[in-house]
Amino acid sequence: MKFDPATNIQDLKQFGEFGDVNPSVTDSATYTFMQAKTMTDTFHGEAEGCFLYSRHWNPSNKYLADALASMEGTEAGWVTASGMGAITTAILGICQSGDHIISSMTTYGGTFAFMNNWLPRYNIEVTFVDITDLESVRKAIKPNTKMIYTEAMTNPLLQISDLPELSKIAKSKDIKLVVDNTFTPMIVAPAKWGADVVVYSLTKFINGKNDCVAGAICASNEFINSLIDVNDGTAMLLGPVLDPMRSSSILKNLHTLHIRMKQHSYNAMYLAEKFKAYGLKFRYPGMPDDPGHETLKKIMHPDFGFGGMIAIDMETVDQANKLMEKMELEDVGYLAVSLGYFKTLFSNSGKSTSSEVPEEIQKKMGLSEGLVRFSVGLDHDIERTWQKIKKSLETL
Asked: How many domains does the chain have?
């Protein structure tokens, strides 16, 4: 039977303590115990089902974490107050001073900045590689390499990581494979292809409303328990806890994710075909001539399409800015960072979400100064949207 994340979520039985169909929202920072010994046992991680303090666990966050783990096919999950909270917590839960990380050179700007600027302060070395060049990954391995880090679909160039092959490389050297799956929830299930840890910015497609900031880590029970250990767990001690009210709203939105991903993908493919016919320079992994197309076909769930992200290359910053401003005036969408929203969002990556990456590295990774990261919305009449984009292009 094939792995089906949407069905896994549908089969969840989660309801409130009074039979409410939506789980009750936790409104407590701390929890009572009837016996002092139970509190002591909970501090030691030995009291199953007991809640101690909301920075550690609370029922609302547990509901969401369990649902995400079910979607990903992992034993457990943990939710954070931001995507960066998930990324940094996971990395620091694996690596310590003296360790080495291999990372995709093409990655979210905040992740790049954390690895390039922050980790070296604590003697954690990072080697950035072209993650699609498996030989370069192999050559980058050192005796102290503890992690290979990548994004299933990279930000913003939309390269596709060959997760089965990266997993083979990692496992052959006892290295952890950590995958950011923010761009491709439901489309790709990294854990099923050998990822040890899957991280998310829930802010994007999973929540889909751009009304909160949140993140998640999905992994084994052992890894999640190590993160929340009261003595040395990075999640417990760094404290990136998600507010229970936000957990509750994200959980409800999660149940429509399968429908939304199909529409995002349908609209993006429609526009990609129009862009190709128009002669626009762009990248979309759903197109047969895209370098990552066959790799994505190998690892994707076919029901959810190729995703809602397109990278449009306008070659210069000036042309990119002109196009984005015209599209906003034509009501195509909004000139704004982020993605996965029900409205189309677009931004010039090199000057916004990838601005933390030095220009020389942007050039090395092939990031055009005119690249527009285009997150396709849930538009009902996508032909109408195309006509607005076409008008914007024709008036440049």
From this structure: 2
Cβ atoms 157, 283 nearer than 8 A: yes
Q: Which of 260, 251, 255 is CA-nearest to residue 10?
A: 255
Which pTM value belongs to this model?
0.96
> What's the rounded Cα separation, in Å, for the pair 167 and 171?
6
Q: Kindly list the strands in the beta sheet with 76-80, ordered across the sheet, starting from the edge strand earlier in the chain.
A: 76-80, 215-219, 197-201, 176-180, 145-151, 100-104, 125-129
Query: What are the backbone angles phi and psi of residue 261, rounded to the nearest 5°?
Result: -65, -35
Q: Is 23 exposed, middle or buried (0-12, 13-18, 19+ CB in 10 A)?
A: buried
Considering only CA atoms, give the Rg of the chain: 21
Q: State how far the Cα of 77 lies from the Cα of 340, in Å rounded to an integer.
A: 21
Helices (H) and strands (E) in the chain, counts: 15, 12
The Cα–Cα gap between 248 and 118 comes to: 32
Cα separation, 308 vs 341, whole angstroms = 10
Whether 207 and 308 map to the same domain: the answer is: no
The pLDDT tens digits for 174-229 are: 999 999 999 999 999 999 999 999 999 999 999 999 999 999 999 999 999 999 99
264 shares a domain with 244: no
